[in-house]
Design a protein that fits this description.
The structure is a single chain. The protein has 217 residues and is α/β, with parallel strands linked by helices. It folds into two domains: 13-76; 84-215, Rossmann fold (3-Layer(aba) Sandwich), CATH 3.40.50.1970. 34% of the residues lie in helices and 20% in strands. It contains seven helices and nine strands; from the N terminus they run αβαββββαβαβαβαβα. It has helices spanning 13-17, 30-43, 98-110, 127-136, 151-159, 180-187, 202-215; strands at residues 22-24, 47-50, 65-68, 73-76, 84-92, 113-118, 141-146, 164-168, 195-196. It has a five-stranded parallel beta sheet, sandwiched between helices. Strand 7 (141-146), helix 5 (151-159) and strand 8 form a beta-alpha-beta unit. Helix 3 crosses helix 7.
Length: 217
């Protein structure tokens, strides 16, 4: 076990918020991640790990980790067996937005919420959204991941009755500015009531969806 990290659990987070602590792995060393996993194993805890590259998975725990390279998420000893489906839709403007969308999907799955994915329905070919909108409307919450001009979020905000959680992605050329243009477009949307998350923050969008679902409203 590495000893170069002191890890203190936020033990009451699940009681307070309805979801427990996740481990953000970007910027952490393999040794630090190993220390955290060792502590989780000793405490009999499961963990959701985000922004975890395969090269950083400690060899000692590789057989105990369910890693998804697209979303860069991992489950360590997941214990939730209950599964709910049909409440959250995740829509992407293009396939380039899938990494962010799958981070949201995997976060929800860790907490027993099986989201429905609607990929590549951006407004460049609006008929693609038209063909899927009735299926999307069967869900309580819709997460929208979009880069470039992020127009899908505004369109969805005008068509979907429930909460729309918009996630700008860092997809696009030049003036897209690594997702800043998408973020500004979502914030300036004329569709009322859209909630906007940080750039590429699929995890944050999933947690917002969990808060809505756990509120019982």
């Amino acid at each position: 076990m590495s000893t170069n990290t002191t890890f203190v659990w936020d033990r009451e987070r699940e009681e307070r918020l309805g979801f427990d602590e996740a481990i953000f792995c970007a910027g952490k060393s393999i040794g630090q991640i190993e220390t955290i996993l060792d502590a989780a194993s000793a405490a009999g805890r499961s963990l959701l790990l985000t922004r975890l590259d395969e090269a950083k998975i400690p060899a000692a725990f590789s057989s105990e980790i369910d890693h998804d390279p697209l979303s860069r998420t991992a489950f360590f000893h997941p214990v939730r067996s209950a599964s709910t489906s049909g409440r959250v839709a995740i829509a992407t403007a293009g396939t380039s937005d899938l990494a962010v969308a799958h981070e949201a999907r995997r976060t929800l799955a860790y907490y027993g919420e099986q989201a429905t994915m609607f990929a590549d329905i951006g407004v460049a070919a609006l008929w693609r959204l038209g063909e899927r909108i009735e299926d999307i409307r069967r869900h309580r919450v819709c997460i929208v991941a979009a880069g470039m001009d992020a127009a899908l979020a505004s369109v969805m905000g005008g068509l979907f009755r429930g909460p729309v959680l918009a996630v700008p992605t860092s997809v696009g050329y030049g003036v897209a500015e690594g997702g800043r243009t998408a973020l500004d477009a979502m914030l300036a949307s004329c569709a009322p009531g859209i909630t906007v998350c940080n750039i590429d923050n699929g995890y944050g969008a999933a947690c917002a969806a969990l808060r809505i679902l756990n509120s019982g409203s």
